[in-house]
Design brief:
cell inner membrane; 7-stranded antiparallel sheet; Cell Division Protein Zipa, Chain: A; 17 strands; ZipA_FtsZ-bd_C_sf; cell membrane; alpha+beta; membrane
């Protein structure tokens, strides 16, 4: 097998540090339908499940409430965190029975509030301005209730954020195939085909609805070619992951009467897929060894 062959295969699995895939996640505020109870959920991660503080990727701003404060009195003050544009945060509340939750019950009483600040994402590390804004809102919250607040040292936070950002830049990777045609197709036809397969449009890209594999699809300006990309850190490691991605890509190419090629325009075959699989397993292993198991909650929070 020639050196050129290895070279073009290795180019398929490329390191990325691109804002193209960075979804700016909003701090969501969801209102319960119950007329007798208003629940607010502070959630900045899709498919959220409760997770405690993660010291590898977060820092904790603690507000101790003494005496305890009723949820209804907290709700309007917590809404101010929605003004943080990059939404690096998630909020955890502890009631007077020691129960922790990201759901605010207006009839419950709370003894502490934790503001967990994400140190870095694909948008980059948290900077001084963002940190200052989060701390200012947190201090205002504490002052409103004459509460004690514990804030990590700013320089320690900024330095830790930069280190995390560098580590994640080293770990970040993708697999990209191209779907190439000798004719152009209509946007309506493309949308119909990929919607039936399970893609939703998000701004100028399509994202596959899947809990196991993160796949993006992007059209070119002339609607003649498509890039289809598998996000490695956000896809669950599985012996069938690459095959699933390849089969999905092949299906779209077939529906469009197109060719499936690598980034250099060379047709993919069994030999190239086998080599990609070996490289992919190495990347999965590296993520795991560094504490970012692919597809995990931690990985999906940082690589977003």
């Amino acid at each position: 097998m020639s050196n050129n062959f290895f070279k073009y295969i290795l180019n398929i699995i490329e390191k990325i540090k691109s804002s193209f895939f960075y979804n700016k996640v909003s701090l969501l505020l969801e209102k319960n339908d119950s007329s007798s109870l208003e629940n607010y959920k502070y959630n900045n991660c899709i498919d959220y499940d409760f997770h405690d503080f993660d010291s590898l990727i977060e820092v904790d701003i603690l507000v101790n409430l003494k005496p305890s404060v009723k949820g209804i009195d907290l709700s309007c003050h917590l809404k101010e965190f929605k003004n943080i544009s990059d939404s690096f945060i998630r909020i955890m509340l502890e009631n007077n029975f020691g129960k922790k939750s990201e759901i605010l019950d207006e009839n419950d009483y709370y003894v502490s509030i934790h503001i967990f600040v994400l140190l870095a994402s694909r948008d980059g590390p948290i900077d001084s301005e963002q940190w200052h804004k989060i701390v200012s809102i947190s201090r205002k919250l504490a002052n409103n209730f004459n509460a004690m607040i514990v804030v990590p040292d700013k320089q320690i936070v900024i330095n830790k954020a930069k280190k995390l950002d560098n580590l994640c830049a080293f770990l970040d990777a993708q697999i990209k195939f191209k779907i190439v045609t000798d004719h152009c197709f209509s946007r309506e036809k493309l949308s119909e085909i990929i919607s039936s397969i399970g893609f939703n449009k998000f701004h100028d890209i399509y994202i596959l609805k899947s809990d196991r594999i993160k796949v993006y699809l992007k059209e070119d300006d002339n609607l003649c070619n498509l890039d289809i990309i598998m996000d490695i850190p956000c896809s669950i490691q599985d012996e069938n992951t690459l095959n699933a991605f390849f089969d999905l890509s092949s299906k779209i190419a077939k529906e469009l009467n197109a060719k499936l090629v690598d980034d250099n325009g060379l047709i993919l075959n069994d030999d190239s897929i086998e080599l990609i699989s070996r490289q992919l397993n190495k990347l999965f292993k590296r993520l795991d060894e560094c504490g970012f198991t692919s597809g995990s909650y931690r990985a999906r929070r940082v690589f977003k």
